[in-house]
Amino acid sequence: MTDSADLPLIHVVDDEAPFRRSLLFLLESVGWQAVGHASAEAFLQAAPAFPPGGGCIVLDIRMPRVSGLELQRRLLAAGSPFPVIFMTGHGDVELAVQAMKDGALDFLQKPFKDQLFLDAVERAVQVSHERHAARQRRGEAMDILARLSSREREVARLLALGLANKEVARLLGISDNTVHVHRQRVMEKSGTGSAADLARLILRADPGGLD
Amino acid sequence: MRCSLRSISVLLLLALCPLLASATEASRQVRIGVLAWQGLEEAEVRWSTLMNRLADQLPGRELVLRHFDLAGVAAALKAGELDFVVTNPGHYVFLEAESGISRIATLVADNASDPAHVVGSAVVVLADRQDIRRLADLQGHSLAAVSPDAFGGYQVAWGELRRQGLDPEQGRPAPVFTGFPMSRVVEAVLNGDADAGVLRVCLLESLERDGALRPGQLRVLSPRPGGAPCQASAPLYPGWAFAAAPHTPPALSRDVLVALLALTPDAAGQSWSVPADYHTVHELLRALQIGPYAFLRETAWPSLWERYWPWVCGLILTLLAWGAYTLHVEHLVQRRTRELTQAMAARQRLEVQVQEGQQQMDHLSRLSVLGELSGTLAHELNQPLATIGNYARSLLRRQDSGNLAPAALRLAAEEIASESERAAGILGGIRALARKRNRVREAHDPVALVGEAGRLFAGMLPGAPELQVSTGGDGGGWRVWVDPLQIQQVLLNLFKNAWDAQRAADCDAPIELHLEQVGSCCVVAVRDHGPGLAPEMQGRLFEAFFTTKSDGLGLGLSICKTIVEAHGGEISAAAAEPGPGLVFRFTLPLAEGATPWHENPSDDR
After folding, report:
1. Closest CA to B562 of B281, B335, B363, B339
2. What ipTM was reported for this prediction?
3. What integer pLDDT is reported at residue A37 of this predicted model?
């Protein structure tokens, strides 16, 4: 939302054209940029052309052929960053539960109040932004770590786990001096000043990097 | 011994002598009975001359003349006391029928006369009576005559009056009987005691000749042509008859006849001639219903009864039997009619009950279909409502934030209008289905019906699979004879079943519909791609309350069957080829120029 390139785009996927259009009209009323898709297939077809930036997907859970749940699974598999808000009909609670388990951000039972819907979209866009920022930070961390040699990455990981130089030397079967030299290089290259900083950097790049 | 025998013979002969003598005497006697119609004295005077002259012609025979009145002659004949009878034509005809006498000669006025035309009547009035010119003018006047029994003196004139349309018996004209002699009739007319009088023919001329009557004083009515020498008002009839009794020996009859014919005319110019034909006399008496024909009038009923009583009894019995039979039949007919009426009334009541039950059932089934659809229906109605709500609130937001563009307002308003119409359409379809109604039969295009049902189905069920309609043969143009709403109900049921089946199998394939004409029917097939049904289940599909669904009433297909059969069609289910899936087929009668009918609504439900 900060500049035009980052303007979030709200996707509404519903086979019910009038209702879809009404949601777009509502979103536009409060200044969102929104685009409608008549089916899951139509969404997937248009996806490559989506501009970069935040946004979310408002998805009808029941649609002919490819249902909303199926689309969500495919998006997850493709690593889509868009948060998903499901719209469900009466009696679709089981489907909604499944959707939430699969990582949906929210679900709205039709008919819903416009404010609820807008709030959900707002939240989703927020999440989208957060996810975008997190991804950016991870990318930076990975870039930094990529500059290290493999031995340096190994030493950095052990140091991040809180091991002393001596222990690192013994684990790797190298001398204390060598460890010390590696430590100096790692701190230099990553711009970190302590083992704690180093640990945060590694976790940013890979949340499971210290396991 | 011989001596004694002879003496006995002599004695016997002596004893028989008087008898033999009387027998001889009797054989020589000729007994003649005469009708003394003017009294014994008159007859004696009149006929003694004839007897004497006859006696001269019949030497060796003794003529015995006896006088009788009308009844006396008949009685004497019956007793066998007479050999011959001399009587007037009417009486002769009567005796001929009654006693079997036969005429041998007829009295004629003179030698020149035709014996068949001797006796007649002249009806006279005062010459100055201008108001009576013809016999027909006698209506309303009085008519004098000697006696009702007088042949020429009354009966002949009577017969003629009847021919003219009058009837003295009915008082038209009123008869006045003066008694004999006939001069009394003349006096009655001259005195004015009667308007007219009946005279034996030639009497008038005779009286005028004798100077007893001034010529021209009396006038004869309706004189018949050829009236010389005497004027007559009626046809002439044969004269008096000389007739032989049935037992009279033919030889005697011949002798007497020869004697009669040999007689010269007497002082009055009368003589005997060959017997005339008395047929005309018969006719007259028959017409007047007198003499031998009196039975026609007086004893009509009793004599008829006597003659025909077996027939009459038979007829009456037949009539009674027929009447009884008719009554019996009528009774039977009435009883059967009553029974029939009662039976028909009972049947009608039953039909009404059945019909009411049927309609109730239809209604329930529609409601049950609606019930099964209602969950999704609510959702479906929510769609347009939610859409409308979204637009409305969006407009408010734009208004509040001051950036409501006219184009946006217009767009939103159009969407709202169209969505509200859609909602109303869905509700309308439901209402039509849920309403209680009477049955109708109309010609409809089955393809259009299927399309309508499909739209309603899609409208009620979001996410329902699409319907794929195909037609066989010439591809449509058919008309089926149906109640459109009921057929819609059947289709909705089948669609719903198909959808349920496909949902169970998690299948999104379209529901296939195929229509084609087979004979005089349109066959509609609905095929789903669900899991199908075990064959043993298929047989029970159409039973009421049979269901494979947890939330089903089991009424849908049984109602479908009822409806289709009420249309004269059939419904069946079979496994789809190739499987899996189930295909329902039902037939509808094609409309062939039939006119639509609507049941009269019994009330306004």
Report:
1. B363
2. 0.74
3. 94
Rounded CA-CA distance B493/B503 in Å is 15
Domains contained in chain A, CATH given = 4-136 (3.40.50.2300), 147-205 (1.10.10.10)
Domain B26-117+237-298 homologous superfamily, CATH: Periplasmic binding protein-like II (3.40.190.10)
Chain B: closest CA distance from residue A114 (Å): 7
Among A15, A19, A113, the strongest candidate for a mutation testing the B interface, having the largest count of B CBs within 10 A, is A19
List the single range of A86-100, A154-168, B420-434 with lowest mean pLDDT: B420-434
A89 → closest Cβ in B379, B391, B411: B379
Closest-approach residue (CA) in chain A for B382: A111
Return the pLDDT at B88.
85
User: DSSP state, B116?
Assistant: T
Which residue spans within B245-328 are E strands per DSSP?
A: 271-273
Query: Residue B47: is its pLDDT beyond 50?
Result: yes
Cα separation, B151 vs B252, in Å, equals 29
Gap from B586 CA to chain A (nearest CA, Å): 28
Tell me which H or E stretch contains B64.
strand B62-68
DSSP for B430-447 reads HHHHHS----EEEEE-HH
Nearest-neighbour CA in chain B from A64: distance (Å): 6
- Do the domains at B26-117+237-298 and B120-235 have one common CATH topology? yes
- Which DSSP symbol is given to B596? P
Which of A25, A48, A1, A41 has its CA nearest to residue B393?
Answer: A25
- pTM summary value: 0.41
